[in-house]
Design goal:
Helices cover about 45% and strands about 15% of the residues. With about 160 residues, it is of the alpha+beta class. Among the domains are: about 70 residues; about 45 residues, no CATH class. The protein has a four-stranded antiparallel β-sheet with strand order 1-2-3-4, covered by helices on one side.
């Protein structure tokens, strides 16, 4: 029995969405609007297994209905939650300036590094880094320009250690 189900499910995975929709209508006896392949495969596979091995018992169905009777099952989100939550009390919206990174030396400092036998000098600016006349926003972008591959700029220039630690 298990081999039959496994073969059927393997066949389902090779079907197109159109074929799965036809198979769904064949197994469930009703058409579907969905074009989600994974959902169709799961539902058809479940129905095939239920047909071969039998569905859940009537006792289990009654117990499930009994448990569900006392609960509030929601199928859609409440209307109040669909929009953004309204602020409570007095709120202020604005830009927060991130803390200055203490791993970086002050502006107008020069970072020095020897890479592949070449001495690299980088000028630290207020809002970036200057190297060979070009300005880079981040150390990582500069390190990528130098090495040709992505790498952490702080690591490349040996600036990983926080000051004071």
């Amino acid at each position: 029995m298990q081999l039959d189900i496994d073969k059927e499910v393997a066949l389902l995975h090779r079907m197109t969405v159109g074929q799965l929709r036809e198979k769904y209508q064949e197994t469930w006896g009703e058409p579907t609007n969905t074009r989600n392949k994974q959902w169709l495969v799961k539902r058809i596979a479940w129905k095939i297994q239920a047909n071969i091995e039998g569905d859940i018992s009537e006792r289990a169905r009654r117990r499930a209905a009994e448990l569900a009777r006392g609960t509030d099952i929601r199928t859609t989100a409440p209307k109040a939650m669909k929009s953004a939550p309204k602020p409570v009390g007095n709120t202020v919206t604005g830009f927060v300036q991130p803390e200055e990174d203490n791993r970086l030396p002050p502006p107008k400092s020069v970072l020095e590094r020897v890479y592949k036998g070449e001495k690299i000098l980088v000028l630290v600016l207020e809002n970036g880094f200057e190297y060979e006349g070009a300005i880079y926003k981040t150390l990582s972008a500069l390190a990528k320009k130098i090495t040709g591959q992505h790498c952490n700029g702080y690591h490349f220039f040996n600036l990983n250690k926080k000051v004071g630690k």
